[in-house]
């Protein structure tokens, strides 16, 4: 997915990144790329354990250039764009693998169990009813996904490197994600509160 030592993943850039961003829970939409503050001095690491969403992110591996057709095809497996990598891992589970619950609305999927029948509005009156909260509360299946800690990312991949932004959208497991940074937590400069996540 990526090369080690980690600096090899941005050696194609004319200037090495000055700021690193980490995005936990991307689904099929790389939110950080749409923040006006993300620019040509930045590099993002995105984490998305749903393999279909991870694969969809990879199909956008070439950036759009105004006035030019986007070149199709993959680069290195994890190369989402020139300034980012995406990884098919969960973060902060406390073990190398975790049970990941996929919900009826997959953007709500989580390493935490769903409410299912305990949620008052979880029963639809009709099959075609769209109830976002009910669909988020209803688990469809579980998957076994690989998991790493932020401490590993910070100590092994980015040793001594400050993280400008850690964006977490982990459907209730956000605190566990941040705590998984362990003694490397001081490398993280900003953890914005964004639920739902919007530019801040």
UniProtKB/TrEMBL annotation:
SUPFAM superfamilies membership: S-adenosyl-L-methionine-dependent methyltransferases (SSF53335)
Coiled coil (residue ranges): none
Pfam family, one: Methyltransf_21
Annotated ranges, domain Methyltransferase FkbM: 24-189
InterPro entries in alphabetical order: FkbM_mtfrase (IPR006342), SAM-dependent_MTases_sf (IPR029063)
Protein name: Methyltransf_21 domain-containing protein
Source species: Durusdinium trenchii
């Amino acid at each position: 997915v990526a090369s080690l030592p980690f600096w090899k993943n941005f050696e194609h850039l004319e200037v090495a990144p000055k700021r690193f961003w980490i995005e936990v829970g991307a689904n099929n939409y790389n939110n950080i790329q749409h923040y006006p503050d993300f620019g040509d001095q930045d590099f993002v690491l995105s984490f998305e354990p749903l393999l279909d969403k991870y694969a969809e992110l990879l199909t956008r591996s070439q950036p759009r250039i105004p006035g030019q057709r986007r070149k199709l095809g993959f680069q290195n497996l994890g190369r989402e764009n020139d300034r980012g990598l995406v990884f098919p891992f969960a973060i902060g589970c406390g073990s190398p693998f975790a049970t990941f619950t996929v919900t009826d609305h997959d953007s709500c999927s989580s390493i935490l169990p769903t409410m299912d029948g305990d949620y008052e509005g979880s029963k639809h009156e009709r099959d075609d009813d769209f109830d976002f909260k009910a669909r988020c509360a209803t688990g469809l299946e579980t998957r076994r996904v690989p998991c790493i800690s932020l401490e590993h990312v910070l100590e092994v991949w980015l040793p001594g490197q400050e993280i400008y932004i850690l964006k977490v959208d982990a459907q209730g497991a956000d605190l566990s994600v941040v705590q998984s940074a362990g003694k490397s937590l001081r490398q993280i400069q900003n953890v914005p509160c964004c639920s739902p996540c919007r530019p801040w």
